[in-house]
Specification:
Radius of gyration: 35 Å
Mean pLDDT: 75
Helix content: over 70%
Low-confidence stretches: 5-9, 13-17
Order of helices and strands: HHH
Largest sheet: none
Number of helices: 3
Structural class: mainly alpha
Length: 133
């Protein structure tokens, strides 16, 4: 009789484990449902912004404004350091090097601003119909 009870206890143990697993399935499904729902709620459709040319144009303008702003601030700070070195240095070599660095800074800043102006100019000249399908 004791052998029969041991067998029944094992079967009850397996049944209980099976019930725990089946109880986890709805919880898992609910978590998956909430995850998918949150992804769908926070996702922004890419097609709502217009065509690809408008999206690229906006991206290029944003990047150019950021680069131009950073380049302008960096050029002003570096030019100020060069001018201070030129004015307060007693060494002729330091003055010459500061003057050459100041020229490089001005040329690089002017090149960045000119490239931005060229891109803006050609953007208006080249029609979008050239790139259409």
């Amino acid at each position: 009789m004791t052998g029969k009870l041991k067998c029944e206890n094992k079967e009850k143990g397996n049944i209980k484990l099976g019930n725990q697993r089946t109880e986890l399935v709805p919880q898992f499904a609910f978590i998956v449902f909430l995850t998918v729902l949150m992804i769908c709620a926070t996702a922004m459709p890419a097609y709502a912004a217009g065509d690809i040319f408008e999206t690229a144009k906006n991206a290029m303008q944003t990047v150019y404004k950021d680069v131009a702003g950073i380049a302008t601030v960096a050029a002003v700070v570096c030019a100020a350091v060069c001018l201070f070195l030129m004015n307060f240095s007693k060494s002729g070599r330091t003055v010459d090097e500061s003057r050459s660095w100041l020229k490089r800074i001005v040329v690089c800043w002017a090149a960045l601003m000119t490239l931005g102006a060229i891109v803006t100019y050609f953007e208006k000249i080249i029609p979008q119909s050239l790139f259409g399908g």
